[in-house]
Amino acid sequence: MKQERAICTARFFRILLFLIGIAASLPINVFAAADVGACATNSENRQLDYWLGNWTVSAPGSAPNATSKVYLSLDKCLVVESWDGGRGHSGQNTFAYSPDDKSWYGMFADNQGRAHVFTEGKVLAGSAEFHGTSRGPTGETVLNRVKVVRITPNKVEQTWEKSTDNGANWNVVFRGEYSRANP
Description:
The chain is of the alpha+beta class. The protein folds into two domains: 1-32; 38-180, Lipocalin (Beta Barrel), CATH 2.40.128. Helices cover 15% and strands 48% of the residues. It has helices at 2-25, 38-41; strands spanning 53-58, 67-73, 78-84, 90-98, 103-110, 115-124, 127-135, 141-152, 155-163, 171-180. Strand 2 (67-73) and strand 3 (78-84) form a beta hairpin. It is globular, with a radius of gyration of 25 Å. Mean pLDDT is 84; it is low at 15-34.
């Protein structure tokens, strides 16, 4: 019994030493965690900061109590807009910058089952534009274009346009004026 325990202990230590040897031969950064503050200090990630905050939203035909909250998530790497249209229609929009390919991406989802992915985004100081395709009710390809533009420090305008003719004509499906709730 003692001999079996000694053999098991010796095997355990040999395996442990083997694994330590492998780990010691790997580059140090293999085990390093990603820089948690990278998004907080990366100027590209901070380009939508003008939109952060609590907003009241007015739009033609919208409820007078429509609101939006725009905040950062995932160690300040993800911009999230949680919105409530005031009449039972709500959703979340998410936007993120990828330093790997130096591109912005976005996604829209609502409580009515709609989801849109934006694979092309361009963000400059005070202005953002995202493009993506979706399918219409009869299966046709729809181009979507969303713009978020800073008007003043306390006003932002969001416009969503759709095209069913490959971008020749665009129809505005939403134009909302965001007013900062707590300026």
